[in-house]
Structure formats: C-alpha cells, structure tokens
UniProtKB/TrEMBL annotation, chains A, B:
Name by which UniProt lists this protein: Hydroxymethylglutaryl-CoA lyase
UniProt source species: Niallia oryzisoli
SUPFAM superfamilies attached to this UniProt entry: Aldolase
Gene Ontology MF terms: lyase activity
Gene3D superfamilies reported for this sequence: Aldolase class I (3.20.20.70)
C-alpha cells in the first residue's frame, strides 16, 4: 500500500452539504462559516451553485456570495456552473473556479438536467472553453462515475469517454463522483487508476458519499490509485433529504483523522473541524425553512 | 491493489459477540443459532470460552455446548482457552480448535488476566504444546496487537516477539486483534505484512472491531497485506456494554457485501446473514438478564 506524505481536502459543505436541505442558511451565516472553514486550514472551498434559484432555492444567494467572500491569499473558491446563464453570473463573481458537471450515466443525466450525457457534454465542453478563455480555472466533475441509481454500474469506458472530451476541451482538473455512495474500493481503485494513467497531466479528485459506509475504505482505495484530492463535508452533510440522518458526503473530521493518524498530512486543524461537526447541524436547525417556490 | 478470488470469514458472534452482554442466551438457542450460522455457509465458528463461569457468566455453558454441537463435515468449532483448567475442560469437549490468547500490551494483559505478557506467554506456549500433543488444532490470538487502551500504540516489535514465541511452540494459526478498534489501515497493513513475511507458513487472521468506523477500510488493508481470514459477528455484536449501540466486531453482512461486490468470494449466503442481522438482536432482547455472580 501507498501512504503519501500529503493529501488535499476540499470542503464542499456549503454547496453539496446544503444544496438539498429544506432550510435556507442566510448569506451572512454562510460567510461566517466560510471563515471558520478557512480557519480550519481548508484552501479549496466549493461554496455554491449558479443554478436557477427556482430549482435549488438553497443556492439563491450565489451572486451575493460571489461578491462578498473574503479574498485570502491561497484560498480558492469554487462554484458549480450548470449552463450558459450560470456561467454569465459566475464570470461576474469573484469565484476562482467553475465546476462544470454532467453525469457519466445518461439515465441520471436525463433525470438531473433533462438531457443525454452526449448533449450535456457538448454544452459543458463549450462552457469550459469560454471559462478558460476568460482566465478562470475549470473543474470537470463527472457525476455517477461508478454507479447510477437508475442503470446500475457505469462501465469504465463511458466514464473515460466523458473525461476525454473534458480534457480535450482544456479542463484544468477532473473529478469523479460516487454520487450515491455505492462504489466499492475496487471500482474506485480501478477507475481512478485508469483515468490517471490515461490523463497523467490532469489532476484528479474524488467526490465520495458515505451512504453505505464505504467512505473511508474508498478514500484509502483512491489514495492507492494515486488520487491526492478528496471532497468532504463538515458533519457529513449532504445526505438524502428523504432519509433524514443518512450519511451524506464523507465527513471532514473522519477523513482528516483517518489520514493524519496514518501520517498523511492534510494541513488541517482537527480541533476546528470537530467544532464544525457540532456547529453546522446547529446552524441548520436554526435556519429558516424554505417554502417551495416551484 | 490486490483483490483475491477468495477470503474466509470466521463467525465469532457466540463468543465475542455475546461475551460481554448482560443477558444469558440459553444453550438450546445458541445451538439453534450455530445451525443458522452454518446454513449461511460459515465453516469456522468460534462458539464459546472455557473461562470460569464466575468471571464470564454468559459463557457458563461451554462444556454443554462442547458435547451438543452438531458434527458436520467441514465445519470447525473453536473455543477460547484461558488457562490449564480451561484446557482440561476443552479436551473433554468436541471442539476442534483451542484459541489460546494473550495481549501484546502488558498493560492490557495485566488488566485482563492479572499477569504480564511475558508470564502469559510462558503459560500459553505450554498450553499450545499440550493441545497439539492431544491432536487438537491451536490458534494463537494476540489481543491489543495494534493499540492498547492503556498504553496507546503497541510497537510492532512487541507483537512480533509474542508471535515468534507462539510459532516456536508449534501454534497452527496466528491471529492479530484490534481489540478496541483504533488501528488504522496503515498499521493493519504494516503489522500484518511483516508478520506474514516473518512467518510465511503460519496462516494469519485479523480480528477487527468497528468502534471508530475503520472496520471496512481495515479489512481492505488486511487483504492488501495478504491476510485471507477475518473474524466477524452477526449484527456487529460485541460492542462495549457500557456504550449501548456502539459498534462491536465488524459486522458479518457488511463485510460479506463489501467483499462479494468486489468479486472476492466468501462462499456465504448474504440473505441468510441479513436475517441474522435481525434475529440476533431480537434474541438478546428476549434473553434472561444475568444477575451478577461475582
């Protein structure tokens, strides 16, 4: 087994952790939390999504966040960009990186954005080209890169096809998402190894969910494959809103403890993170419940 | 990473799963459960301990179990043997294998049996020699082989010293126990690799607890090191009696699903195991609460 000296952890709490919640966390409080996340040592933070507020009302303050986040040397803010309209908004913000996303599985992509993977790929590669031209960084995030909730295991070839188109369009970084937490360590290892072998010059991240308790085993498998960047959420937020209490994204404190105990340096402050384990759920509990706007 | 074709899973529910419970499961019901465990495909079953019934009243029926278990070709029953008196009882039973145990950490060994590791080692190696001479199989189980609740991380050298003495006394199999669930994948991998390298002719098992959620990651790390035999308990029984609901031994259903999904064959029937996930806790709920006899 390989135990690298260092691994980077990206915080996605404010985006994937809050996205499907039924409460709206006030902008002011999101900014406070970003500061606390930075105080814990995180340098890469996925903050929001430029999706239409009608569809994802928890992300309705993306434009305001894009103006008001504290500019700190070495801290990189990222935001999801779902389409051309979102990109226009993104380009008027101060976010460093645009996360352009689509699903490797057409069944999931269709359910998510009402397009085939092929159609989304065409749009996403165009958005990547524009974003790069405007001097911003692009992250190509491939959802359901392992298992699709509708069609089951996603063949590696489909994932590579999407990754290849993203790389050809000039994407600066790739991400593979185990969207529903059903990938096994073996799948994580095999898919990640092959992507890294095929595109050795493009950094690769893993976005893992802990739905079935495979989160930590999958982190270790990703490391074995050569992945050095992992997404986490504070308090493991981001579980399915229809299954309260179900684990969501892999939990920051658990991942950091696992790595640091193995002398894999994350540069993060576990005590600060343990505080966020308590404070984030409290914040959700005290936030305003959203009224359906759609 | 390595994904072997086959791994063996040993059931320890009736011993480590029940040992610290505050209820006594009737002998008749234990035998019923053994039959169900066999029906699920398990071929190695750790059933009880020949400890003095005053100390561990849940195991008070070891002698009776040793006479009444169904003899089935290919099924191997094991029992813990703590001392010479226990060995005498064991040798009058029909159990196939005696599990002789001690802690690599002297602090834990002292707390457990009121002897230093050195003193226990002398006794255990004698017991191994007698047991082998009597034609029964011996398993040398090293507790706190990674982390001790009192003295913290256990140096590898101490574990190897114990293992070496056990091997020299003719033990047929070695086991390393992560008694409190605090070992990391890195420690599991490194200690197991080194033990297997040092004693390549002695089969090695891992006894893992899921107390901190490292169970599945540690199974994968053990496999990478070359371990092909793992202990599990149905329903993850064996948690600390002072922390109800805390995970105990790694859970049979979780381990089997993890392995089978990765095409690592266990020879087990997951549907039967999922039934035991439900039935074991029910059985505990309906069993007689023990009155302290010590």
């Amino acid at each position: 087994m390989i135990f690298p000296e260092q691994v980077t952890i990206r915080d996605v709490t404010l985006r994937d952790g809050l996205q499907n919640e039924s409460v709206f966390v006030e902008t002011e409080q999101k900014i406070e939390k970003v500061k606390e996340i930075i105080a814990a040592g995180f340098k890469r933070i996925e903050v929001t999504s430029f999706v239409h507020p009608k569809w994802v009302p928890t992300m309705q303050d993306a434009d305001e966040l894009g103006q008001r986040l504290p500019i700190i040397l070495g801290v990189e803010y990222e935001a999801l960009v779902p389409n051309k309209r979102g990109l226009d908004r993104f380009l008027q913000s101060n976010f460093h990186s645009a996360v352009l996303f689509l699903s490797a599985s057409t069944a999931h992509n269709q359910a998510n954005v009402n397009k085939s993977t092929e159609e989304s790929l065409e749009e996403v590669t165009e958005l990547i080209a524009i974003t790069n031209k405007e001097g911003r960084k692009t992250v190509g995030a491939i959802s359901t890169a392992f298992v699709c909730p509708f069609s089951g295991e996603v063949p590696y070839e489909e994932v590579e096809k999407v990754a290849e188109a993203l790389v050809n369009s000039g994407v600066n970084e790739l991400g593979l998402g185990d969207t529903i937490g059903k990938a096994t360590p073996r799948q994580i290892y095999e898919y990640s190894s092959r992507i890294l072998e095929k595109f050795p010059d493009v950094p690769l991240s893993l976005h893992l969910h802990d739905t079935y308790g495979y989160g930590l085993a999958n982190v270790m498998a990703g490391i074995q494959a050569g992945v050095r960047l992992f997404d986490v959420a504070q308090a493991g937020l981001g579980g399915c809103p229809y299954a309260p209490g179900s684990p969501g994204n892999i939990q920051a404190s658990k991942v950091v403890q696992l790595l640091e105990k193995q002398n894999i340096n994350t540069g993060l402050d576990i005590d600060q993170i343990l505080k966020l384990d308590i404070e984030f759920p409290k914040l959700l509990g005290s936030s305003k419940v959203l009224t359906k706007t759609v």
